[in-house]
Amino acid sequence: MTTAVTPASGERVLVVDDEPDIVGLVAYHLAKSGYRVSTASNGPDALVMARDEHPALIVLDLMLPGMSGFDVLEQLRASDATRHLAVLLLTARREEADRIRGLLLGADDYLTKPFSPQELVLRVGAILRRVAAGGTTSADMLVIGPITIDRAAHRVSVDAVELELTPTEYRLLMTLAERRGRVQGRAHLLETVWDAAPDIQTRTVDMHIQRLRAKLGSAADLVETVRGFGYRLRTPRTGVT
Hints:
Layout: E1 2-5, E2 12-16, H1 20-32, E3 36-40, H2 43-53, E4 57-61, H3 69-78, E5 86-91, H4 96-105, E6 109-112, H5 117-132, E7 141-144, E8 147-150, E9 155-158, E10 161-162, H6 167-178, E11 184-185, H7 186-193, H8 203-216, E12 223-226, E13 230-233
Parallel strand pairs: 2-3, 2-4, 4-5, 5-6
Antiparallel strand pairs: 1-3, 7-8, 8-9, 9-10, 11-13, 12-13
Helix pairs in contact: 1-5, 2-3, 6-8
């Protein structure tokens, strides 16, 4: 079920929570502060609304039915259409490990229940001001297993050790990382990374993949060869952390 509350003009905020009382409280205070508010009670609806409505920010509960907030956040950051959206996690889970996991997955801030509605509104405003000012947020950091990619600084590290990648190697890794789990054909990689016509020798891709694997060291096995098709950056069993 999804609903929309639009009592005032302003930036749109999507509130995702399966507790009607929490949704009503958050939506009321955000709308009172001038935001346009949409709501969703589950992960699949939230992903559809995020893609279709392009909210400036998503207030996301972690303990959703069926699809957790972590899963929703991971899918938001994996999609070209939604990876830029600001996310404020709102949850009853207070464990430090959950907070760290959420921030590493790309959340911009984290607020635990019970919470002050006024504080939530202030945090939403602070995040949106930071984004508007072009400041670096957690969304600029992409962490896949031992690999950390800082999009803003164009830096890559494995197990906290920074790698020396050429611009082409960086673009190649970014293409695989942003489409992780999906096979990327050699011809597609040539067009995307090298801006080359697909009939150019695909051996160029193979050689760069070899060099990239060598530099990734212990994380090299995350770059998989899919025989007859191309390459894929797999997500570790523990997911994106």
